[in-house]
Amino acid sequence: MSMNNLSYNDQGGPDSAVEVGQETTPTSSTTGAAFGLFSTDFKKNDDLKEMLESNKESMKLEAMKRIVGLIAKGKNASELFPAVVKNVASKNLELKKLVYVYLVRYAEEQQDLALLSISTFQRALKDSNQLIRASALRVLSSVRVPIIVPIMMLAIKEAATDLSPYVRKTAAHAIQKLYSLDPDQKEHLIDVIEKLLRDKSTLVAGSVVMAFEEVCPDRIDLIHKNFRKLCNLLVDVEEWGQVVIINMLTRYARTQFTSPWKGDAIFEGSMAHAFYDSDEERKAHSNSEPYIMDPDHRLLLRSTKPLLQSRNTAVVMSVAQLYWHLAPKHEVSIVTKSLVRLLRSHREVQYIVLQNIATMSIQKKSMFEPYMKSFYVRSTDATHIKILKLEILTNLANEANISTILREFQTYVKSQDKVFAAATVQAIGRCATNITEVTDTCLNGLVLLLSNRDETVVAESVVVIKKLLQTQPTQHSDIIKHMAKLFDNITVPMARASILWLIGEYCEHVPKIAPDVLRKMAKSFTTEEDIVKLQIVNLAAKLYLTNSKQTKLLTQYILNLGKYDQNYDIRDRTRFIRQLIVPNEKSGALAKYARRILLAPKPAPVLESAFKDRDRFQLGTLSHTLNAKAVGYLELSDWQTVAPDQSVRNVEVVEQSKEWVPSSAKESVKSGDKFYSDEEGDEGSPCNSTEDGKSTSSSEASTSETESEEESSSQSGSGSEESEESSSHSHSDSSKKKKLQQKKTKNKGSDSDEEDDCAKVGVSSPTHSSEDSSSSSSDDGTSHSESDSGGHQEKWSKAKPKRWCKKQKMRSRCWIWMTSPLIHGYPQSPVCSLQACCQIWMGSLCPVPLLLYR
């Protein structure tokens, strides 16, 4: 019983919850020990309940961690639901998150208790923490009770307008849950989806497209305005969102663009004619109109191409199927390397990728021929992987590489995997059928395989030889004789039935062997399988029509045995054959045509790939994998014969709001003046544009005065330099002393000089109060308002940032340096009354140093 209890606990039985954070309580009674498998332990999880009901947050948090651990292991923790729900209103964020995780798991099972917490969830929807808001919406949408549908609808609408993209993403997930609960809300949900589709966040894009696919996949009109945005955001969306968006855009493109696969379509890049083109070919080229791809079609292909380098195999597969279904034929080969790269992944990924490659290789062999060695079978591959690689190698076979592929097949036939060896024999038969140059070689090789020890290989060889002989029966009578001699050694029913069919079909080519084979079959008729019995009856009927003297009695004997067989199919076939070939008074009109019915020439079978008909499904889908239409599969529509209107995807550009300019600056700005001269305007400046496209400037009088001062100072400076150069060397010592004295005086009076220089160009001193700065700015011709500049200048006076102004010879430049806002804790803004344009910066925040030129 201990072993039974152990296995039961491993399977998640009632005692399984004891494994985490609990101590087992030994049972004293022998009855409980003997029947512990069926007894109910009422003290189970009591310690977790006590921890959840304690007053300490740490104990509750530890209990929730253990409960979530139980859920992660697949254990049943539903009986703790009442104790957990009590903590849903906890103020501890970590505890509340874990409670929400638990409620999402069990809210659907415990609906009555979950309804008691609806008010708590509604309050949590307005919590300041975005994680709490999203978790509350997730739990609320998990309570699948029709009564709260209006509450869920209201919560989804509010969450769709939330400032947090994470909450909006959760709202997109909740749309699908609400739609499955109440499909009548479809119209309201479509409005929410339309609003979320306009969202520019990459976090929301994948989720809302998934909701679109679930709720209203036929509403293509919702995608028109968002098509280009989705294409541009595709690279930055999360991986699983990329898969959903790519699949949706594939369906959208089929309904909005024309086919690039038209037989007479000529691309603009391939219009150059060859030198030796005939006149007729040139006329045909001139008459055919070149195919011009829609710009949005090209945008989609260009946006998805970088995703071929994605680490997620699903994304690469989605891009591959998009190119397969949408790209021009000469561009499809772009995806080949990426698909071959995926073959290095896990076997589950290999299986899906190889299935899609097998479908693609049927229509376009040239894509994968350079990578044929990547499909060679390895000894470590699973059987289903080996068979898929074998399928692809068979599809890639042609006259150039058939010798290499047949050498590989010779090795595969010797494999210990019987299923794989039998599949290899079928592949050899397909190669012999498709490539006539190697038909005889393959047939001789298959005949040698008839002496193989493996019965499965022998049986499959017989079946394949039978199909090959139907193409050239007269030339291979020796092979039929050889197979008849090996008949006694072959035990597989399908192989025995194939040999009997061959002997009966071509009995005229082996007239001596066929009656003897029928004699042997008459002896063992009752012990054969049903499929073999049917072929024995057919062989007897054919020999009766072609050689009735030797086989008349044998045929009647076999027909009598079949008349009383246990299988009703054999009984029916026997009665039909008797009435058809044995003449009597009751024979119908069909007796005259017995030879034409039974010995009519049969067409040779065509050996085709099992993946030939899978191209009707979209690549990468479950329906393609199963080769059957799965639930929820959306078929790709045909290409449009006439391209729809492209303007439906045009988005109206909303004019940007005008930049705020203080009223004082508006008064001082004149339309005819420019902040820079013509030469400087050509060089560019950070403040050289306004609403009318002209630079702002101060009054003409102030600018002319400052320019005249600069010109006079520059002229005086140049004159002094010339005089110094013309002076004698005897005065050099005195000039050096004067310069040293000037430097000392500059260092001592740096503060006063700085204030004077700043006053000249209109910059207030750091130590000045707001009143002084406003008055000085007004004296210089600027028009700062006291209300706009006072508050900023008070902050500047408190922080006392380092600022200086420096003059050069030709132009005066003002460097305004501000201390970082991260240090002083408040935003800084430049205070410069050099020109009226600088006043625009007074109302904005400028956290970086500003360099202004005049």
UniProtKB/TrEMBL annotation:
GO CC annotations, alphabetized: AP-3 adaptor complex; endomembrane system
Keywords for this protein: Membrane, Protein transport, Transport
Composition-biased stretches (Polar residues): 1-10
Biased composition (Low complexity): 695-705, 764-780
Entry-linked SUPFAM superfamilies: ARM repeat
Occurrences of domain Clathrin/coatomer adaptor adaptin-like N-terminal (ranges): 45-582
Region (Disordered): 1-29, 655-804
Gene3D superfamilies linked to this entry: Leucine-rich Repeat Variant
Primary subcellular site in the record, as a coarse category: membrane
Membrane topology qualifier: Peripheral membrane protein
Family: Belongs to the adaptor complexes large subunit family.
Name of protein: Clathrin/coatomer adaptor adaptin-like N-terminal domain-containing protein
UniProt source species: Alosa alosa (allis shad)
